[in-house]
Design brief:
The structure holds two protein chains of two kinds. By secondary structure, chain A is α/β, with parallel strands linked by helices. Chain A is built from eleven helices and 17 strands. Helix content of chain A is 32%, strand content 17%. Chain A has a nine-stranded mixed beta sheet, sandwiched between helices. A two-stranded antiparallel ribbon of chain A has the order 2-3. A two-stranded antiparallel sheet of chain A has the order 10-11. In chain A, helix 8 crosses helix 9 and helix 9 (266-279) runs parallel beside helix 10 (298-322). Chain A is globular and about 70 Å long. Chain A starts with 15 loop residues before the first helix and ends in a 14-residue tail after the last strand. Chain B has one helix and 30 strands. Chain B has one helix at residues 10-13, and strands at 43-49, 54-59, 65-70, 75-79, 85-88, 95-101, 106-111, 115-120, 130-133, 139-144, 150-155, 159-164, 170-175, 181-186, 192-197, 201-206, 211-217, 222-225, 230-233, 237-240, 246-257, 262-271, 277-282, 289-295, 301-307, 310-316, 325-328, 333-338, 344-349, 353-358. In chain B, strand 2 (54-59) and strand 3 (65-70) form a beta hairpin. Chain B starts with 9 loop residues before the first helix and ends in a 7-residue tail after the last strand. The chains are: A alpha/beta, B mainly beta. Chains A and B meet through helix 10 of A and strand 19 of B.
Chain lengths: 429, 365
């Protein structure tokens, strides 16, 4: 969906921080704004207590039975046992001993039913809160948060993804919100691509280049301004800020003891980087851990993967709590779906979206809560069923947004979340 | 997996003839020749069903029973003559190793909850006689020393632990592996123990000192998939030839899609003294894992593979890469054992069946 402006006012050239301020001052006529934030009180509250979001994407489909909803001693339970947690009466899988001690900061939705067993479609649903339909595209939760919670940190991208592999660059996941809110991808936790000025270009020459670019841009946009030209221009300014603040992305600046605590492997380093980014007021950070698509040897691979996840994730949750950041930071651990209760011939579990779990924590949530229940063999939800749309609403509500509000796109209101759905009130504080 | 019980040659298994009568008396009719194993005649002779998929299986050394573990965390004992099935319930998790001591009268099982349990094999309803909290995490393999006095176990805590078979007391531990240990094997001399891990390192331990003397390179059995970001493989099984001159180590290779079960079974054959790789035995066209290998006393190396191609018994000669015979089992197999008679094979299957196959011609009619 094309992001266009209906007017050519100078407000569109404001920096991101000023943009939020303008909105808070009642500039509701700015097309592309978020009407919920047009209320001065809401924006002021956000300014005082900037909300952040951390999403951990368990790529491929984490087994709920090996993690948040264990069924030991049953036909489908597999070889792992359940262990007690810091929440009385709550047990999780034995592969998560460190996380078990942080469960009082977290909440579990055990009755997730998304009824979609395809990787791509399931991913779309859990990240956008909508079912994928032909011709329609929706922004991912990171883009929505980046847009709706625009931060106070100059130059920090609002939407950052730390990918488990290499690569990097910019994602195409903001749909009608425009590329400004698309994810900056830190491939394998490395700094944004091309964010170091080449040695052969002096700082003076660089400044001159940018001055010339701005001059030419201004001349061009005075007559032919579009959302695309704005994004084009702003991406340069953001890149300059990124280059200036390059150390924010350098996880080696974190203490050696923390590297040890998080684990000296990719996911440990990525979680530590996530902490660093959140501390530097990044609005939305997504860390991906790969890979849980365990059709074969599910138990061996969950041993391997959750061993990595547990240590680093628990350290991160504990640190956010110790640093007083949990009240302002929403934590979500999700997948595109869960895995079959039935164990296949290869000791694997296949795709299963009818009864699985998502973990939430921190800001705006009932910590230590468990919502929903699956039957004894984990094949279906018997209580507290929720879906991707409910979860999406809940994420937004947890960070203080009214999920029933709309974005204005091309003069038309577009609901932030599926208007046919609603938040999970039982999980909200 | 349990150290294979070296089968007796079929000729030795026959009843010992009595003293020969004087030459001037009538001679009794000659004993019929003992049947000899012929892999090409392999066929299923018995199928026994449980109500949960099976994991591993072992014959008792006296050849009376076969014990098999299941995904319901039980061990099932089948009486070979009657087919009677008796549950042995005591583990809280899946059993991945079964061995015997006390002349075959006691079974020791290794659970994924980290416990070893001793069982009276012949009891009408076997109950745990002793439980030992042996490891942190899964125990993946277990073996009995040749003299029957020590049980070795190993698993995810990367440690081989040694236990007094008579009372379960710890008598030693061997540390040095840097990842999960998948298999242990005693040398018949009793002075050495071999252990193989996820990354294909096979250590040779001198038991008198606890030192790792040597290492076989079976890293071909391991791979790291960058796309899926997983370590995969492992030394799933080991066996020594009857003359101990050769070591076989089995598992998988060609793991193009570990999470999707796309990989091939393979068995590496080493010369034990030099540790030189003599042969990489494959099973062309099959997908799966070599779950267990056993050297038959007559020479062939017997393997069982299970995977997306199904279950197969595979028979290799020393000098050939490919098997000289394969027998397709009715369902995916996960483990195999050779009866002390050297003729029968037990296989544990995903379809909940324990199957007994015979390497002899089918009975007429």
């Amino acid at each position: 969906m094309k992001c266009t402006y209906a007017c050519g006012t100078a407000e569109h050239l404001l920096a991101r921080r000023r943009f939020l301020g303008q909105m808070a001052a009642g500039a509701s006529a700015v097309v592309g704004g978020l009407s919920v934030l047009a209320r001065p009180s809401a924006a002021a509250h956000l300014a005082q207590n900037q909300k952040r979001v951390l999403v951990v994407n368990m790529a491929g489909g984490l087994s709920q039975l090996e993690s948040w909803d264990p069924k030991p001693g049953t036909k489908t339970g597999g070889p792992f046992r359940a262990i007690p947690t810091s929440v009385t009466g709550l047990h999780i899988g034995e592969l998560l001993p460190h996380t078990a001690q942080q469960m009082h900061h977290l909440a579990v939705a055990r009755g997730v039913n998304t009824s979609e067993d395809d990787h791509g479609k399931g991913h779309f649903m859990i990240f956008t809160g909508r079912r994928q339909t032909p011709g329609a595209d929706y922004p991912k939760i990171g883009a929505v948060c980046a847009r709706a919670l625009e931060g106070k940190s100059e130059g920090m991208p609002g939407h950052i993804q730390i990918s488990s592999g290499g690569g990097g660059g910019r994602s195409n996941d903001a749909a009608y919100l425009g590329p400004r809110y698309a994810a900056v991808v830190l491939g394998n936790g490395n700094p944004p691509q091309n964010s170091v000025r080449p040695d052969e270009i002096t700082s003076e020459a660089d400044a001159e280049r940018n001055d010339f670019r701005r001059h030419v841009n201004d001349r061009f946009t005075s007559k032919r301004r579009t959302a695309q030209t704005d994004v084009y221009a702003s991406s340069y300014e953001q890149a300059i800020e990124l280059m200036r603040r390059g150390e924010v992305f350098d996880v080696s600046k974190e203490p050696e003891a923390d590297h040890e605590r998080y684990g000296k492997y990719d996911f440990g380093r990525h979680c530590l980087l996530a902490r660093r980014l959140l501390e530097h007021e990044a609005t939305f950070v997504q860390v991906t851990h790969s890979n849980y698509d365990t059709h074969n040897e599910n138990f061996n691979f969950h041993l391997e993967q959750l061993g990595e996840f547990d240590r680093a994730f628990a350290a991160l949750v504990g640190d956010l709590a110790d640093r007083g950041m949990l009240d302002s930071t929403l934590i979500v651990v999700l997948s595109e779906f869960g895995r079959t209760p039935r164990i296949n011939q290869n000791y694997g579990r296949d795709h299963w979206s009818r009864a699985w779990s998502v973990v939430l924590g921190g800001a705006g949530l009932q910590r230590g809560a468990v919502l929903g229940k699956t039957n004894d063999e984990g094949t279906k939800v018997v209580d507290g069923q929720v879906d991707h749309a409910n979860l999406f609403h809940t994420y937004l509500r947890a960070v203080g947004l009214d999920s029933t509000e709309t974005f204005e796109v091309a003069g038309r209101p577009v609901p932030m979340a599926d208007p046919a759905s609603h938040p999970i009130e039982e999980l909200l504080a | 997996m349990t150290q294979p019980q070296t089968p007796k040659p079929a000729s030795e298994a026959a009843p010992t003839p009595g003293e020969a009568p004087p030459a001037d008396q009538p001679q009794p009719p000659p004993e019929p020749p003992a049947p000899k194993a012929d892999p090409k005649e392999t066929h299923v002779v018995q199928e026994w069903k449980h109500d949960s998929p099976l994991i591993c299986c072992r014959f008792d050394p006296q050849g009376r029973y076969v014990l098999a573990s299941a995904e319901d965390s039980s061990v099932q004992r089948w009486h070979l003559e009657s087919g009677a099935k008796t549950p042995m319930v005591g583990h809280e998790s899946w059993v991945r190793g079964i061995t015997f001591c006390d002349g075959g009268n006691t079974a020791v099982t290794a659970g994924s909850e980290g416990r070893l349990i001793w069982w009276p094999v012949e009891a009408e309803q076997p109950q745990p006689a002793r439980t030992v909290e042996a490891h942190k995490g899964w125990i993946r393999c277990i073996a009995t020393s040749p003299d029957g006095n020590v049980i070795a176990s190993a698993g995810n805590d990367r440690t081989v632990r040694l236990w007094n078979a008579a009372d379960g007391a710890p008598v030693g531990e061997l540390t040095g592996h840097e990842c999960d240990i998948y298999s242990v094997l005693y040398h018949p001399g009793g002075e050495l123990l071999l252990s193989g891990d996820l990354k294909g390192h096979i250590k040779v331990w001198e038991l008198s000192t606890g030192n790792a003397l040597d290492e076989f390179d079976a890293t071909k059995l391991h791979s790291y998939n960058k796309g899926q970001q997983v370590d995969f493989g492992g030394v799933r099984t080991m066996a020594l030839s009857a003359d101990t001159a050769q070591l076989a180590a089995g598992g998988l290779f060609n793991a193009s899609n570990p999470l999707g079960a796309v990989h091939d079974p393979i068995v590496l054959r080493f010369e034990r003294e030099s540790k030189k790789l003599l042969q990489s035995h494959i099973a062309e066209g099959l997908k799966g894992i070599a779950w267990r290998v056993i050297f038959h006393v007559d020479g062939p190396l017997i393997g069982v593979s299970g995977g997306s191609s199904g279950g197969f018994l595979l028979f290799w000669n020393a000098d050939e890469e490919k098997e000289f015979h394969r027998f397709k089992l009715p369902n995916l197999a996960r483990d195999m054992d050779l009866h002390p008679d050297g003729l029968r094979l037990a296989t544990a299957h995903y379809d909940q069946q324990l199957r007994i196959s015979s390497m002899t011609p089918k009975a007429a009619g």
